[in-house]
Structure formats: structure tokens, C-alpha cells
Amino acid sequence: MALTLETIKEDAFVEKFALGNVPREVPKGISKGISSSKNISGIEVRLSRAFIIENKTKPVLFFPGFAKLYLIVTVVSDQGNIVQTLDLKSFAKVGDNEDLPVDKTIYFFKKNDDNESPSQIHILVSVVKSKQALRDVARVLADVKNDKEFGDLVTTMKETIKNANAVDQLSNTLFSVAAIFGKFLGEVDDKPLMTWVQSFTDINGDFDKLGKTTIGRKNNFAALDLSIIIRDTERERAIAKANNLTIEELEIAENGVASQ
């Protein structure tokens, strides 16, 4: 079996409003209104957890049911290179109730005089079970990047992302990118253990909350966490001043630790 666009999309999480359940109280010293991302000084998104609940592999006699897994990560943004992250990892022996060693940055932005803050970040994460020996992930990545269909999808995303309301179209394109991986992964389960497409956009207020926010999704087979860290020097100074705090004290109050 192989991954297809239809099987990847089946039962996938597609989230447009990342922080919809996170309170957005306006701190003292900050005026209310529709915000934009233009003053943001830094953004980091981390894949902070990938936990395998049930690997779909039954034990045989005295042998535990280990699975061979792939983790696909794709990140696109409306600033800089359209494809910010295109990554594939493999894991050879994964049991039930096991964390994958994946706590890593998948998107990073730091403001300077030569760039603009992103207003859209779109992420796809998919956990796929292999039915044969794991393939060379560097070779698979190279094959995906050299694939004509992938090149066509990148061109499409460059145009689509110019429209702030094109979240649905971008989600579908990210599913198509994942399906291209399926062309080169060999024999895998046709349905991933879990797929999650997450969009962060300024128009939805996803960059309003300073500091670190972690969101997660889970099904019967896997659980994934994404952490987004928002820095806005102007807002941080205003909040600190209004509350008689130093920037370091504000960071500790929000995150439990000051940045290095």
C-alpha cells in the first residue's frame, strides 16, 4: 500500500484557529484593536512532542510489537522562502506509549532591517508506519525536492499564500506535498497514524499572545504538540512599563524563565 492524497486527508486534523480557546486578555498598557504581525520581533514554532499511543503492530509470541515509523514535517510561510521546512525522520523500533525524540524547532523568525514579519505560517505533521525496511531519508527528501509535481505545488503555494483567506487551499496543497512523500517511501500503511495541519495567522489573532503557548491534538494512535513562542519588543516594553516590571521579570512571569 502507499500514501495517497485521499488517505492522508482521511481523519486528519485541520486547524485554522490555533489559539481559539486561549484567553486573550489585553494586558495593562496595551490598547485594544485588530493587531497585525508587523511589529513582531521573533517567532519560533517547535514540534515539542510526538507520542505514539498505539503503533498498530501486534506482538508475536514473546516479541513486543515494535513499529518502523516515518515523521513528515512541512512548514510554509508568506515571508522568505515559501517552504521553510521540509523534513523526514525515521524511527526503527517504536513501541506503544513511547515518545519519539523530536523536540525541535521547525520554524524560526527573527526581525531585522532586511525582512518583514510573517502573517501566515502553515504546518503539516504526519506520522506514517512503514511495512518494510526503512529507506534512506536523505535520498527520499532529495527525490521529493526534485519531483516535478513538488515543484508545481511550490509554485502554486507562492501564489495562493498571497491571499490571507486562502487557508483551505494551502491545507489541501500541504496534503498534496505529503502524498509526494508517499511516492518514494515504498510500502507503508495507506493511512497515517495521525496527520495534523495547523495554520497560524495574524488575522485570526494567533500572534496576539506573547510568550510561549502549547497546543496539542491526539487520536487513538498518536498525540502531537506544537509550541509557538511570540516576541514583540514594543509590546513587551509597554507591558513591563505599565506594570512596573523589567523585561526579564515580565518574561519570567509569562514563561517561567527569562530568554538567554
Features:
260 residues; alpha+beta; five-stranded mixed β-sheet; five-stranded antiparallel β-sheet; 6 helices; 25% helix; 32% strand; globular
Describe the overall structure.
By secondary structure, the protein is α+β, with helices and mostly antiparallel strands. It has one domain (5-24, 33-229). It contains 6 helices and 10 strands, in the order H-E-E-E-E-E-E-E-H-H-H-E-E-E-H-H. It has helices at residues 5-9, 137-146, 148-160, 167-184, 233-242, 247-255, and strands spanning 13-15, 42-52, 67-77, 83-94, 98-99, 104-110, 120-130, 194-201, 211-218, 222-231. The strands form 2 sheets. A 5-stranded mixed sheet has the order 1-8-7-3-4, with helices on one face. Strands 2, 5, 6, 9 and 10 form a 5-stranded antiparallel sheet that branches. A hairpin with a 3-residue loop joins strand 9 (211-218) and strand 10. Helix 3 (148-160) runs antiparallel to helix 4. The radius of gyration is 20 Å and the shape is globular.
Summary, kept brief:
With 260 residues, this protein is an alpha+beta fold. The protein has helices at residues 5-9, 137-146, 148-160, 167-184, 233-242, 247-255; strands at 13-15, 42-52, 67-77, 83-94, 98-99, 104-110, 120-130, 194-201, 211-218, 222-231.
Give the helix/strand layout.
Elements: H1 5-9, E1 13-15, E2 42-52, E3 67-77, E4 83-94, E5 98-99, E6 104-110, E7 120-130, H2 137-146, H3 148-160, H4 167-184, E8 194-201, E9 211-218, E10 222-231, H5 233-242, H6 247-255
Parallel strand pairs: 1-8
Antiparallel strand pairs: 2-5, 2-6, 2-10, 3-4, 3-7, 7-8, 9-10
Helix pairs in contact: 3-4
